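Thought: the user wants the 3D structure for the chain below. I'll pass the sequence to the structure tool as-is, report back what it returns, then summarize two notable features.
Action: structure_tool
Action Input:
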Amino acid sequence: MIKLIIGNKGSGKTKKLIDAVNAAAKSSPGNVVCIEKGDALRFSVAREVRLIDVESYGISGYDEYYAMLCGIAASNHDVTHIFGDATKKIGGGLDGIDGFFKRLAASEDIEYVFTVSCDEADLPSEVFEVAQKL
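Observation:
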């Protein structure tokens, strides 16, 4: 399942993401992962959450981001939630975001939540075939 937190800069997306991450950390019987670009969330998420900065691994573009998420899921079968902040920045824009989400949709065992900084109308309509707005 893929859920999206959509809005322009300053609309409170990251705050909603942090609240969702911390709620999942309290209720999940498995592991919760949060991916960010930079280290802005370091002091905001529960210490039980595995926080990953994509800049530490040189991840850029949707193909590399997808590969990273697959690696996380494959290396630990106890991952129940993966949260991603700054999806558009990591992926390099909106071009290709629909394919990224379609590929992730095949993974039914993990709940994904991503922030996307844009107007909802700017997203390709194909995104909403596999993802829902949170």
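Final Answer: Structure generated. The CA atoms of residues 102 and 130 lie 6 Å apart. Helices lie at 13-27, 62-75, 87-91, 97-104, 127-130.
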